[in-house]
Design goal:
The chain has four helices and six strands. The relative contact order is 0.20. The chain has one domain: Nuclear Transport Factor 2, Chain: A, CATH 3.10.450. It is 26% helix and 40% strand. The protein has a six-stranded mixed β-sheet. The longest helix has 17 residues. With 156 residues, it is of the alpha+beta class. InterPro entries: DUF1348, NTF2-like_dom_sf. Pfam families: DUF1348. This is DUF1348 family protein. It comes from Mesorhizobium erdmanii.
Length: 156
């Protein structure tokens, strides 16, 4: 029996937004094992200048990421969708171990298999140093509250 991660393609505006929110929620958990389960066992990634393949590599990457990017909080927003593909834009805030804060902006292109698992993720990301007073994400660690503004509402 194959794994399944509804909603399944082809996506509608509603199911693409649901898929993006599910991804955001998982990433905000900062649980590499949980996040890796959303990807096919042979999923391919480009993340900045890193190229990964497979869940084990994804889990190891995320473990490294969240050991450096502390107090990580993320918002994703659908940019476009068609068939089994979704494009999202995102911004996340984090600080390093010296207390310097950053807002990282990016775009992701996602491609899903027929079971709703992501088989391809292409991410382009830029980091902007910010002062702690410039932070816009102040919810407790974990899932973004439903009433928290999204990127468009924050002017990001």
């Amino acid at each position: 029996m194959s794994e399944s991660r509804p909603p399944l393609p082809p996506f509608t505006a509603e199911t693409a937004a649901q898929k993006a929110r599910m991804a955001e929620d998982a990433w905000n958990s900062r649980d590499p094992a949980r996040v890796a389960l959303a990807y096919t066992t042979d999923s391919r990634w480009r993340n900045r200048a890193e190229f990964l393949q497979g869940r084990e590599a994804i889990q190891a990457f995320l473990t490294r990421k969240w050991s450096r990017e502390l107090d990580y909080r993320l918002i994703k927003e659908v940019w476009a969708f068609h068939g089994n593909r979704i494009a999202v834009r995102f911004a996340y805030e984090w600080h390093d171990d010296s207390g310097s804060w950053f807002r990282s902006y990016g775009n992701e292109n996602w491609e899903f298999d027929e079971h709703g698992l992501m088989r391809l993720r292409i991410a382009s990301i830029n980091d902007l140093p910010i002062a702690e007073a410039e932070r816009k994400y102040h919810w407790p660690l974990g899932r973004r509250p439903d009433d928290h503004p999204i990127l468009s509402e924050l002017g990001l």
